[in-house]
Amino acid sequence: MLPAPAAAGWTLLRMSNSLRLLVVVLFGAALTAQTTVWVPCSADNTLYESATGALSNGSGPSLFVGRAGNGLLRRAVLRFDVAAQVPAGAAIVAAGLTVRAVQSSDPTPLPVTGHRLLQAWGEGGSVATSGNGGAGAPAAANDATWLHAFSPSAFWNQAGGDFAAAPSFVLAMPAVGTVSAAPTAAAVADVQAWLDTPAQNHGWLLLADESVSGATARRLDSRESTGVRPFLAVTYVLPGQAGLWGEGCPVGSGRFDLVLVGAPVGGQTMHHVHFGGPPGSVGVFYFALGLEPGGVLLQPDCRLYLPLAQGWVPGNLFVLDGTGTGSSSWTHGTSYPGLYFTTQSAALDGSALGFALSNAGVAVLQ
């Protein structure tokens, strides 16, 4: 049985210029058209645990998450206007939040989970100054508080915010420093939904491990800060575009690289071009209708990017020459416009797995 997905920083495949030139000479233009944008935070606030729901920090330069020194909890809420930065109809490949911790009650690393919010909430004009903002300020009109989605009259269904129980991602929050969430399929699903139905974009709530009884609170830069403001990195492809994701397994001193050449357009031919694979081997590529952005770790530095929960369709066989180079091709059908698919190649080798995996290709049919 394969292990659970491991946390992995996202790294787009980088090919040398000479390798790109070789692909262009042999097969025409290599289509690596995925786009990454950095979406700024459009609203944020802190929910300060309070029996009266009187505290907020809508326009302050800090966010708080964790348990304060007085034993009361802090939760941060953030929203990102994805539809303003990503074209409609795009397929989200990966999405990850970045924040910066600037002060801590405890030097121990703190697990912080991000949960999809289920209700709209507000960012008012309150600015907390006491204790660097940790004590909160009187809530202003439309501020989110521990009890209110919009102060003073619109309430959460649950005190402390309405959010999905299952986390979309985890931040290994340091005492001080910048941290980015590893890409997850759940975060991708959230951001895709926010793009497709912007009215349901309520953002995420950051929740520390609240089972810890001691002071754990972190102070983070907010969107009003002069430091590192929260942002969301989003990678996407549009219909008729293809891109590359992740890294292939090590083979010798290099990696098993896949390049997609040609446009994913119905009736047109696309090529799988392979480099650095097991010399003199044979392999096959597979299709799936999803992606595990962090990958499933099969052995050190070797990841499966096709989702385990879905069936895979095998493509054509290919042969690798003495340098580990080879290619195969297929022609797209015309019946599935808008279909988002991923592909990854496997070639036989002498490793413990018995095969090496390439990086992944991602595309949307047009």
Low-confidence segments, ≥5 residues, pLDDT <50?
Answer: 1-17, 24-31
Order of helices and strands: HEEEEEEEEEEEHEEEEEEEEEEEEEEE
The average pLDDT value, as a whole number, equals 91
The major pleated sheet works out as: 6 strands, antiparallel, barrel
| N-to-C CA distance | 36 Å
What global shape is seen?
elongated
Total helical segments: 2
List the helices and strands and how they pair.
Layout: H1 17-27, E1 35-48, E2 55-56, E3 62-67, E4 73-80, E5 91-104, E6 110-116, E7 137-138, E8 148-150, E9 154-155, E10 169-173, E11 177-180, H2 185-196, E12 204-208, E13 218-221, E14 231-237, E15 242-245, E16 250-251, E17 254-255, E18 257-261, E19 269-275, E20 282-288, E21 296-299, E22 302-304, E23 313-319, E24 326-331, E25 340-348, E26 355-364
Antiparallel strand pairs: 1-4, 1-14, 2-7, 3-4, 3-13, 4-12, 5-11, 5-13, 5-14, 6-10, 6-12, 8-9, 15-26, 16-17, 18-19, 19-24, 20-23, 20-25, 21-22, 25-26
Question: What this model shows, in words?
Answer:
With about 375 residues, the protein is mostly beta strands. The model is unreliable at about 1-15 and about 25-30 (pLDDT under 50). The longest helix is centred in the middle third of the chain and has 12 residues, at about 185-195. It has two helices and 26 strands. The chain is elongated and about 70 Å long. The strands form seven sheets. Strands 1-4-3-13-5-14 form a six-stranded antiparallel barrel. It has two domains: about 15-35 and about 240-365, Immunoglobulin-like (Sandwich), CATH 2.60.40; about 35-235, no CATH class.
